[in-house]
Specification:
InterPro entries: Anthracycline_SecMetBiosynth (IPR052164), Glyas_Bleomycin-R_OHBP_Dase (IPR029068), Glyas_Fos-R_dOase_dom (IPR004360), VOC_core (IPR037523)
Protein name: VOC family protein
Organism: Streptomyces polyrhachis
Distance between the termini: 13 Å
Strand order of the largest sheet: 2-3-4-1-5-8-7-6
Oligomer: single chain
Helix content: 10-25%
Strand content: 35-45%
Radius of gyration: 14 Å
Number of helices: 2
Largest sheet: 8 strands, mixed
Length: about 110
């Protein structure tokens, strides 16, 4: 299930204002390196300048119970690992992969 979408932004302050107006609520996470909103069961994140992962377009993240197993399954089916599974804090694991057309997709395991 897709529950998280991250958007690279060039101006975090301006983007935060636009997304707050769009969603009708303030961010729950508001730091210089990440701003996150929770709206209707979805997490919308703003990543300044694409962050260390170099995002150039929004990335959708599927929440899965076993990130390593799912990453193995999609690579066996023809995907390519873009960013290996790693802990981003609090036990949350993330990974990204590209589909055969080069689209970057993400996985999250809590």
């Amino acid at each position: 299930m897709i529950k998280t979408v991250l958007h690279p932004v060039s101006d975090l302050t301006k983007a935060k204002e636009v997304y707050a107006a769009l969603l009708g609520l303030p961010p729950e996470n508001d730091t210089p390196y990440y701003v996150g909103f929770e709206a209707g069961g979805q997490h919308i994140g703003l990543v300044p300048n694409g962050g260390p992962q170099g995002m150039t377009a929004p990335v959708t993240y599927w929440h899965v119970p076993d990130i390593e197993a799912r990453l193995a399954a999609v690579t066996a089916a023809g995907a390519t690992v873009h960013e290996a599974a790693h802990d981003v804090g609090g036990g949350r694991m993330v990974a990204t992969f590209t589909d055969p057309d080069g689209n970057v997709l993400g996985l999250i395991q809590d």
